[in-house]
Model the fold of this input.
Amino acid sequence: MQLDALAIDESVSALFPPERLLDALRDSPVETTVIDGSTDPVVDCDAVVTFQYRERFLDVEWIHSVLAGVDRFPRDRLREEGVVLTNSTGIHGDAIGETVAGYVLSFARRLHEHAANQRRNRWSQPAWDEAWTVAGERACVVGLGSLGRGIVDRLTGLGLDVDGVRRTPVPEPGVGRVYTPSELERAVSDAKFVALAVPLTDETRGLIDGDVLAAMREDAYLLNVARGDVVDQDALVTALEEGTIAGAALDVFETEPLPESSPLWEMDEVILTPHAGSITRDYYRNVADVVREGVRRIRAGSDPVNRVL
Done:
């Protein structure tokens, strides 16, 4: 692959100003520009860094996604056209881990209730048995990649015992027991918190269905920082309404933004965040590091870092 010119698509503005990434790549050996990929041609660029997929990107040789997930990219089409696809996996573990830790502490210390009461000018302490401390509780992290690793580190640091689920039951530091997906219901059955950190694939779509929710403890909380379609959202609403589980913290949804008509908005034991779990002011710097290394490897005749296709 010849790599002389790199474009930054305006769509990355969903996460950070594209000019910030441009500045961070000033030391790159390739010419780098910002484009509006919906209108600007990319025929003079060999590669593009983007948040969004656009058909015209089939004209380049390398697409880099600023997200870890690549479910929005037509992988079969890219493979047919010989387009290299890379992602930003590995840069989100810290932010996602802290987001999940925040959910856990909010539920345990009732911080979400206090925040809601503050908006109503209401002074109301929790009942004597409503709040607890998390040390000694058990969590199950479904997906032990870089996101799951960030979650494991934060939860074990808070004193929780952590089990995990992934395709191969290879031991993982800090994880008491590693289950396979076929053992998912057993894995979640003893956890106070079930945190989802898997990519969206054919195998994980609808992974958390009514049967899995029924296998969870009645006092358990589902925490989803993966993708909305990993969870059967209708089954989740039913489980919450019927008290099958105690609550949920959701950063991702089947439809985004979450429709105003969704019953999730009105549920007291549900924390909703707007797909913001990985957002950090250093996001563009982290992406720049991955892109810079990809450029170096390609120009040296090697595969770029985080190659998906």
